[in-house]
Design a protein that fits this description.
CATH topology of the domain at 43-172: Four Helix Bundle (Hemerythrin (Met), subunit A)
Number of strands: 0
CATH class of the domain at 43-172: Mainly Alpha
Strand content: under 5%
Structural class: mainly alpha
Shape: elongated
Mean pLDDT: 75
Distance between the termini: 162 Å
Low-confidence stretches: 1-41, 179-186
């Protein structure tokens, strides 16, 4: 009889300890902060979007310099484009880039290098390759036929500007293009006023 009572007490004690232990574990678990899964990084996407804005500004700068026939300004824009395209060609840029954008980047880099070489020939007083073209502008061209030394590389500059726009679209991945900067257009020279002729007095 004593053994039965002792056994019953032991069962009740073990059940109570188990209940209290379970309650304690549940309370401890509820006290711990919830751990959420790490959000996917968007650093690469942000980097590409920022670079798209930079390339857009340089595209507009190159276009403005070419329209004004500014060889030095065109060279400066090309040098800056070289640096930004090099940033995009890093592993960080390539890893978040689509295959099409990556291919466009390579094309833009090649064209930009060609323009840089042609500008060096112009600065040295040589006729750049390709030779000047006399064809009229087409609707697809960004630039009209350019006067002066830059006229020799008008087609090359048009190809570079068009490729840069394609690259910007690829980097943004469907986002709208940044608002382009206004391109300064040289003011037309003022025409001097025609002096008025003296009026002859009426004959009497």
């Amino acid at each position: 009889m004593k053994r039965t009572v002792v056994g019953a007490i032991a069962v009740v004690t073990v059940a109570a300890v188990a209940t209290m232990t379970g309650f304690g574990l549940a309370s401890a678990a509820s006290a711990l902060p919830a751990v959420s899964a790490p959000a996917p990084t968007s650093a690469n996407a942000q980097f590409l979007q920022n670079q798209a804005g930079v390339v857009q500004v340089l595209h507009d700068q190159l276009k403005a310099a070419a329209l004004n026939g500014d060889v030095a300004g065109t060279q400066d824009a090309v040098n800056q484009i070289t640096a930004e395209l090099a940033k995009l060609a890093t592993p960080q840029g390539r890893s978040g880039m689509s295959a099409t954008a990556s291919s466009t980047l390579d094309k833009a880099t090649g064209l930009n290098n060609d323009v840089a070489q042609a500008l060096k020939q112009i600065e040295a007083g040589k006729t750049p390759t390709p030779a000047p073209t006399t064809r009229s502008a087409s609707p697809q061209d960004i630039l009209p036929p350019l006067p002066g030394p830059l006229g020799a590389i008008g087609d090359l500059l048009n190809s570079l500007l068009t490729t840069l726009l394609s690259l910007i679209t690829g980097l943004l991945g469907g986002l709208p293009l940044p608002v382009p900067l206004p391109v300064p257009v040289p003011a037309a020279p003022s025409v001097p006023a025609v002096p008025s002729l003296p009026v002859a007095p009426p004959k009497v």
